[in-house]
Automatic annotation (TrEMBL):
<dbReference type="InterPro" id="IPR007471">
    <property type="entry name" value="N-end_Aminoacyl_Trfase_N"/>
</dbReference>
<feature type="region of interest" description="Disordered">
    <location>
        <begin position="117"/>
        <end position="144"/>
    </location>
</feature>
<dbReference type="Pfam" id="PF04377">
    <property type="entry name" value="ATE_C"/>
</dbReference>
<protein>
    <recommendedName>
        <fullName>Arginyl-tRNA--protein transferase</fullName>
        <ecNumber>2.3.2.8</ecNumber>
    </recommendedName>
</protein>
<dbReference type="Pfam" id="PF04376">
    <property type="entry name" value="ATE_N"/>
</dbReference>
<keyword id="KW-0833">Ubl conjugation pathway</keyword>
<feature type="compositionally biased region" description="Basic and acidic residues">
    <location>
        <begin position="117"/>
        <end position="128"/>
    </location>
</feature>
<feature type="compositionally biased region" description="Acidic residues">
    <location>
        <begin position="519"/>
        <end position="534"/>
    </location>
</feature>
<feature type="domain" description="N-end aminoacyl transferase N-terminal">
    <location>
        <begin position="34"/>
        <end position="106"/>
    </location>
</feature>
<keyword id="KW-0012">Acyltransferase</keyword>
<keyword id="KW-0808">Transferase</keyword>
<dbReference type="InterPro" id="IPR017137">
    <property type="entry name" value="Arg-tRNA-P_Trfase_1_euk"/>
</dbReference>
<dbReference type="GO" id="GO:0004057">
    <property type="term" value="F:arginyl-tRNA--protein transferase activity"/>
</dbReference>
<comment type="function">
    <text>Involved in the post-translational conjugation of arginine to the N-terminal aspartate or glutamate of a protein. This arginylation is required for degradation of the protein via the ubiquitin pathway.</text>
</comment>
<dbReference type="InterPro" id="IPR030700">
    <property type="entry name" value="N-end_Aminoacyl_Trfase"/>
</dbReference>
<dbReference type="InterPro" id="IPR016181">
    <property type="entry name" value="Acyl_CoA_acyltransferase"/>
</dbReference>
<dbReference type="InterPro" id="IPR007472">
    <property type="entry name" value="N-end_Aminoacyl_Trfase_C"/>
</dbReference>
Amino acid sequence: MSSKKLKSANDASSSRDGLGGGESVIADHGRRRSTCGYCKSPARSSISHGLSAETLTVSDYQALIDRGWRRSGCYLYKHEMDKTCCPSYTIRLKASDFAPSKEQQRVSRRLERFLDGKLDVQPREQGEHTGASSPLGTARSEENNNIEPVMDDLSKMIDQAVQVCIQSGEFPSNMPIPKASVKKVFCDKKKKLAKGPEQLLYTSSVAFPIAAAIKRTHTSEKAEINGNKLSPETISEMLLSAMSKVRETPGVSIKVSKGHINFLSASQDSFSEKHVTTPNETLCAKKDSENHKARKLKLEMRLKKSSFDREEHELYKRYQLKVHNDNPSHVVESSYRRFLVDSPLIYVQPSGDDEKVPPCGFGSFHQQYRVDGRLVAVGVVDILPKCLSSVYLFWDPDYAFLSLGKYSAIQEINWVRENQVHCQSLEYYYLGYYIHSCSKMRYKAAYRPSELLCPLRFQWVPFEVARPLLDKKPYVILSDITESQNQCSSSLPHGSEPRTNEHEEMEQGETNDHFMGGSDDDDDDDEEMDESESEDTHIESDIDNIIVGLYGSQYRYKDLRKMLTPVGRKQLEPMLQSYRKVVGDELSERMVYELR
């Protein structure tokens, strides 16, 4: 090979990424088939295209995820959406538009109450084993056993009141009847909920499931009573009236508030208190006040560059074993490193007052959540020019009651909002893949307003627009919806199917010598004919400008093809064409396609 025909790595590609330099070096693994972890099909029905990245610039990865790619460690994959069993749509959210739901707001308030020491449920100590059937807050268990007969008695009284309302025609006779449940109100909530001198002991929210049951019966003739809809507030008033007809409750008054039925006592000697009061309960409110500051916990969030951390790995093992029931052989250190520590992303340092890079820089990070120094959760994220991309979250099973998955998502969205001041291009929160056909994945759409990536034209479509069609079939060309609405013509025929990989699974482990000329057994006439064909009859193709890495040097394919044998070209060119389709024209001419 003549040295004149070679291009060095520096000549072919130098500092292509505008953020800190560096280049993306990719190896193509072609089409991959595997079993599906979502639909649990025994067949190899999950079909994707795979790449592995030696290095990857943040700009190139941003472009890849905007074409439907995701990474797991250094492995990149993209599902063949029209062929795979569970089409996976990239989902994102503009952080500045995020509107938390009531449930998401409750998650934040619950954690605040936990930190303030106002939440009844408490986690176990660090070294204590947590069994699957052992609830947190076992300090209450003995007390709960003592008050159970009283709560059961009050529940039966409410059930009898429900029957009275059905017999009188106030409730539909054909509705499913929810069983009443009465709960004890612990002392740290009594002062907040009770009004006046009476002491709040128990409460029931049975009016809410009754209201839902009535609505489901679709009996319009019973939908209103005296012009009032059967809301939980109305139902609780009706039950209060019916309970007075069932039997008396000496020493206890029953009141309703916002749909809740509350049982109160003005006397410490009431029938219920005789059974339920523990020796220390009369001092509970006072002790809560005195010890409030001592019990207050501190939550810290620490963002650090991706690296192996022994403490994180131990938490990951506990999470995978207890929450996902993984086989212990699958949570060893090596697999953890490949999955959540190794990253091909080239770190980009912040540069003073540069508004293009946030203070932490760009790259792969671990966000640690600590309560009083104890590691309770770790969020693995990629911070890219346009977004924070969520990779994975694992948390302490002892803290399941805090819904740390939802809480961390809210915090990551807030992080994007806060850091957009430092990096104007940073606008979005990417939640990974959304699979409409998998009920466990639908929670991602609860972060609104979100949008899905069209698998054909790579346009973003509002989730609420896409949902009706996804309800009908799992694979949808989403951009057809908006194009139809806007009455715009498309460069592709309406409803056309996306181009797919033309090659089946390809073995790409051949030695590079198989592609190159120079063997002692080569026929001289064939070489001369190949040279003539290369120089005189070659017509420029769409793969000519792909950068190919070979033997530590880099070439545009139009230069490399002159040095290949006909057999080498015949094998390499379909691979390059397939690669160009899945990564796009621009990236195929910017990233290095490494031959191995």
